Amino acid sequence: MTTQPAPAIQVCGLQKSYKELRVLRGVDLEVARGSIFALLGSNGAGKTTAVRILSTLLRADAGTVRVNGFDVATQAADVRESISLTGQFAAVDEILTGRENLVLVARLRHLKNPGEIADDLLERFSLTDAGGRRAATYSGGMRRRLDIAMSLIGDPPVIFLDEPTTGLDPQARIEVWQAVRELADRGTTVLLTTQYLDEAEQLADRIAILHEGRIVVNGTLAELRKLLPPATVEYVEKQPTLEDVFLALVGTKG
Ligand SMILES: Nc1ncnc2c1ncn2[C@@H]1O[C@H](COP(=O)(O)OP(=O)(O)O)[C@@H](O)[C@H]1O
Ligand SMILES: [Mg+2]
């Protein structure tokens, strides 16, 4: 008998309505430990709602959610200790330097060596040179990287990134992608939401498309591509892009 390690995230039959608006109508998904999972959906699809339930900020109407083995409904404190959440809007204090922001969070978490932790994270996110500057002077990408670094203090095994690159310029997006890849390389499980097909394509081990309250497909990029007719040969061979798959399943964007 082989024992599979339990998935980092298990969602089963998740439902959530706001009054008559049925946002999540039975969502099922699993995220393997140490993997990057992209929840892809148009604006208003319910991505933030799902992330808020998974991170114990919002109660589900029905269904079960386990994160790091803990039930979000009955073991919320254990879930909170297992996760970090970075929202769409950076929680960085602009008056403080990058390093001071990190030290502050480490102190709030009662960790022993806040300075050491800060320096290590600055290094990991290529912010060492900028560490002594006020965060107000940072570019969008630097700020978002600092935000992600802050959310890693205390080494949570699972991290939720809700639209980590929305509003960033292309260079800044690439910087954030590198930071996310680095997280997964270290064994952190990452669930990110995005409206950007290329982001899912670039980063994710698995991609799930949330549409009209349900997961309409869930697989690797290669599996998603197989949903469309095989590549056609014209002058060059053209593989269906994730965009082709998305549009075929969801219809027109936005
Ligand atoms: N607190 C709320 N009260 C009422 N409706 C909400 C609330 N939060 C979100 N909604 C609605 O639920 C739907 C899904 O929202 P959301 O989860 O934020 O989607 P996404 O993050 O995919 O853009 C949207 O139609 C949104 O307007
Ligand atoms: Mg959202």
UniProtKB/TrEMBL annotation:
<keyword id="KW-0547">Nucleotide-binding</keyword>
<protein>
    <submittedName>
        <fullName>ABC-2 type transport system ATP-binding protein</fullName>
    </submittedName>
</protein>
<keyword id="KW-0067">ATP-binding</keyword>
<keyword id="KW-0813">Transport</keyword>
<dbReference type="Pfam" id="PF00005">
    <property type="entry name" value="ABC_tran"/>
</dbReference>
<dbReference type="InterPro" id="IPR003439">
    <property type="entry name" value="ABC_transporter-like_ATP-bd"/>
</dbReference>
<dbReference type="GO" id="GO:0005886">
    <property type="term" value="C:plasma membrane"/>
</dbReference>
<dbReference type="InterPro" id="IPR050763">
    <property type="entry name" value="ABC_transporter_ATP-binding"/>
</dbReference>
<comment type="similarity">
    <text>Belongs to the ABC transporter superfamily.</text>
</comment>
<keyword id="KW-0472">Membrane</keyword>
<dbReference type="GO" id="GO:0046677">
    <property type="term" value="P:response to antibiotic"/>
</dbReference>
<dbReference type="InterPro" id="IPR003593">
    <property type="entry name" value="AAA+_ATPase"/>
</dbReference>
<dbReference type="InterPro" id="IPR027417">
    <property type="entry name" value="P-loop_NTPase"/>
</dbReference>
<dbReference type="GO" id="GO:0005524">
    <property type="term" value="F:ATP binding"/>
</dbReference>
<keyword id="KW-1278">Translocase</keyword>
<keyword id="KW-1003">Cell membrane</keyword>
<dbReference type="InterPro" id="IPR017871">
    <property type="entry name" value="ABC_transporter-like_CS"/>
</dbReference>
<feature type="domain" description="ABC transporter">
    <location>
        <begin position="9"/>
        <end position="237"/>
    </location>
</feature>
<keyword id="KW-0046">Antibiotic resistance</keyword>
<dbReference type="GO" id="GO:0016887">
    <property type="term" value="F:ATP hydrolysis activity"/>
</dbReference>
